[in-house]
Amino acid sequence: MEWKRKDLLSLYDLTAEEIVFLLDTAEEFKKVSERKVKKVPALRGKTVVNFFVEPSTRTRVSFELAEQRLSADIVNMQAAVSSLRKGETLLDTVRNIEALQVDLVVMRHSAPGAQAFIAKHLSCGVVNAGDGAHSHPTQALLDIFTIREKKGCVKGLNVAIVGDILHSRVARSNIWGLLKLGANVTLAGPATLVPREFEEIGVRVCHNLREAIADADVVNLLRIQHERQAAGFFPSTGEYAKFFGINRETLKWMKPDALIMHPGPINRDVELTSEVADGPNSVILEQVTNGLAVRMAVLFLVAGCVKK
Amino acid sequence: MEWKRKDLLSLYDLTAEEIVFLLDTAEEFKKVSERKVKKVPALRGKTVVNFFVEPSTRTRVSFELAEQRLSADIVNMQAAVSSLRKGETLLDTVRNIEALQVDLVVMRHSAPGAQAFIAKHLSCGVVNAGDGAHSHPTQALLDIFTIREKKGCVKGLNVAIVGDILHSRVARSNIWGLLKLGANVTLAGPATLVPREFEEIGVRVCHNLREAIADADVVNLLRIQHERQAAGFFPSTGEYAKFFGINRETLKWMKPDALIMHPGPINRDVELTSEVADGPNSVILEQVTNGLAVRMAVLFLVAGCVKK
Amino acid sequence: MEWKRKDLLSLYDLTAEEIVFLLDTAEEFKKVSERKVKKVPALRGKTVVNFFVEPSTRTRVSFELAEQRLSADIVNMQAAVSSLRKGETLLDTVRNIEALQVDLVVMRHSAPGAQAFIAKHLSCGVVNAGDGAHSHPTQALLDIFTIREKKGCVKGLNVAIVGDILHSRVARSNIWGLLKLGANVTLAGPATLVPREFEEIGVRVCHNLREAIADADVVNLLRIQHERQAAGFFPSTGEYAKFFGINRETLKWMKPDALIMHPGPINRDVELTSEVADGPNSVILEQVTNGLAVRMAVLFLVAGCVKK
User: Helix (H, G, I), strand (E, B), or coil: what is residue A73?
Assistant: First the structure.
């Protein structure tokens, strides 16, 4: 197939074929980072602006390295120092970026849909690096890439996603991508964070960990954010760990070859114990490695669809 | 002509011939950003330090992209993290930068004359990216470049600059550059912000918008900074907009082909309404595009005069 | 000899032969920054992460320029925006960095031994850019490089280090390096900041400036940090300057060709007066220049020992 999108906004928009094409392209790019000279000239003379209105280290660094390994020119803009503080509209800010003849804008924003809004108005490409609780497509792609790499396929697999589904863009993006590729998705967590309404999109909802992970091939543990606890969504991290944490004992409830995934940063002894995080089922650090390959693939493909 | 300055400090220092030479050079560099590979090796192996003691997004990003498209090595230093906080003198800080065998320092500073002071003591080149209310030469050059590009010439044109002239380095630099190239300059705004004393340097001062823009070929609207209002220079942004804002009605007072310019970031519904900002007279985003070309030209020319 | 370390953690670990090999390599790299094109492809396609958990301008900029002149790909991470704030362990943070197939991590951290701890767990190389009051090996190497360059050798020289020895990683690293190369080291300063215990490692301790510098070939003045005064280690910077500052008068106590060194940023009229800082004995700015060469050598050598 031929890639035809100048923007990557959400896995919800993509066909299964497009997702598979992205994963296949990422496989090729993964080899670049294994070489002695970790660099290809694919985006030489192209400019990428990393515009992070919401702070981020891990995603920003991963994108920045992906851009460097594609030989792009890179400019970083962060919220705290941007003109947004001076009352400029978001659209004016990005139109100014575009007027600098930039090819791609990688953007994180707290407002769901912010990237989709600007993509409509800009001729340069837009890559969504996370918009509120809505979507984080490159995270889901790296998760699915890792599953496919380890399990050989995605279709028919049972994937359990555990944690704060309600507020998680990682969960939403994973759900859309996994369902399109034919996986069976189970969501698990406290009822306050995993409402029954999710069943309407074709997933199983489960408030009991054992039940959720019993037949899982993959268990993806979401990060518990402490502000949720403050807001009364669950009583304490200790209680969360007791009912939904993966430890030596609860690990036995899973298939022996099930994968343990986590988007990071992990809270040791909350979502999972150190034995599990550093144990043989964990592919957490491989997710990070694959994230780079996936982002190289995304940047490369969308850049090819930007005019001029 | 041959360019002979290792520093660009102020348009006040330049001859008309030098300004024209800069504009002509920028015209050549403008083509680079229109190519598929937006990059030339002109400054390969040269080091540029962007030293912004006063924060900036738009100017800093524009310089950084200009440097990347010239293939320079770039280091960014910002006030908040610099040794200035530890009590080091400005001269010691920049001597330390110079000792790292840097070729160019692009500097923004709140003190008028800061760049001229350090340029005298350093053998590397110094480019003024704004010094207090004094001078912002690359902004004026990009304004004049845009005027020349759109109108074919500068000599004999009527240029109105509207807003807070008193505190504006953009206004001062424009005045010097425009007068040298033979334009007629009118300054307009509230009397508190546009004192009569400016008449002594050969411009017209006007406290009535209609009168100021009636015969203007170009209307350059300066950003209203809200701290001025707090300081009592004018009663409210609403009143400012009423007397000096450009909207559908006041636009009719101008020649139909007059250019609307603004250094950004714009305050929609203060200096101008959205109809005007996004309308056919506006060249605001083209100014941004031209800024990159002008900065490439400046960096290229001054780097050629730095010893070693 | 052949360099065999993937990490540079402390001069305490190195043999005299290794230190000399580093200095010789730095001599070669010093020539690169004197060229028109200040760049070699030695680290092309390698990735270096500058991870500064403690803020720094001068060391960070020096490392960043060294990396650029070696053609490395560079990512900067700073404490304020890192995942450490989200409760991630240091080891998890750097394991995540490593999973991005990074070759080298240059790290500053307030905890002594932080770099040694992570170096043990990572396959990528680790360069210590300062760990608490413990060690700052590249600073000591640039000091020793400057001494050797100016004096022709290090063995048998008398080196006085003046100031707050107790809290200084610069002092500790200098002491280890200088002793290994056969210099005689004298420490001088107020008794609260230069405890007698240092004598046990083979240096002279002295609470009288005149005595300390009378036979010195090199006088290295450490920066007085104002927080020490607040903590009661000495009464006032005025009193410090009176008893331990170098000025026109106290300069006469030294040999006429003694070198004045300082790691910067200097406090004029505290550790030394302007006459001394800018006078013929001062090699302070040459230290900065040499720092770049030393860091290029360190990065180049350790990168050669990183697997893959």
Answer: strand
- Residue B201 structure tokens: 């340097």
Q: Which residues from chain B sit within 8 angstroms of residue C286, using beta carbons?
A: 99
Q: Locate CATH 3.40.50.1370 in chain B.
A: 7-135+289-303, 137-287
pLDDT band at B82 (very low <50, low <70, confident <90, very high): low
Residue with tokens 């050989």: A152
Show the DSSP H helices in B181-283 as ranges. 209-213, 226-230, 237-244, 248-251, 274-277
What is the average pLDDT value for chain C, to the nearest integer?
94
Query: What is d(CA A247, CA A276) in angstroms, rounded to the nearest whole number?
Result: 6
**What mean pLDDT value characterizes chain A?**
94
Report CB contact under 8 Å: C34, B81.
Answer: no
Cross-chain Cβ contact A289/C83 below 8 Å: no
For residue A303, what are its two tokens?
């850049």
**Taking residues A49-75, what's their average pLDDT?**
94
Q: Does domain A137-288 have CATH number 3.40.50.620?
A: no
CATH of domain A7-135+290-303: 3.40.50.1370
Interval B225-278: pLDDT, tens: 887 777 888 889 999 999 999 999 999 999 999 999 999 999 999 999 999 999
pLDDT category at C167 given cuts 50, 70, 90 is very high
pLDDT of residue B218: 98
Confidence (pLDDT) at B83: 58
Task: Sort out which chain C residues have CB atoms less than 8 A from B77's CB and list them.
Answer: 57, 61
Are residues A83 and A51 in contact, defined by beta-carbon separation less than 8 angstroms? no
What is the rounded CA–CA span in Å between residue A133 and residue B194? Answer: 49
Q: Identify the residue among A77, A92, A93 best suited for mutation to test binding to B, counting B beta carbons within 10 A and taking the highest.
A: A92
**Burial, A132: exposed, middle or buried (Cβ in 10 Å; 0-12, 13-18, 19+)?**
middle
The architecture CATH gives domain B137-287: 3-Layer(aba) Sandwich (3.40)
Average pLDDT (A111-123) is: 96
Residue C81: its chain A contacts at CB < 8 A? Answer: 55-57
Write out the DSSP string of A119-143: HHH-SSEEEEEEETTTB-HHHHHHH
Is the minimum CB–CB distance between C237 and chain B shorter than 8 Å? Answer: no
**Interval C128-154 mean pLDDT:** 97
CATH architecture classification, C137-283? 3-Layer(aba) Sandwich (3.40)
CB contact under 8 A, A55 and C82: no
**Which chains lie within 8 Å of chain B at 3 or more CB pairs, if any?**
A, C
Within 10 angstroms of residue B180's Cβ, the number of other Cβ atoms is: 19
B247 in contact with A, Cβ within 8 Å: no
Chain C residues with CB under 8 Å of B73 CB are: 38-39, 65, 68-69
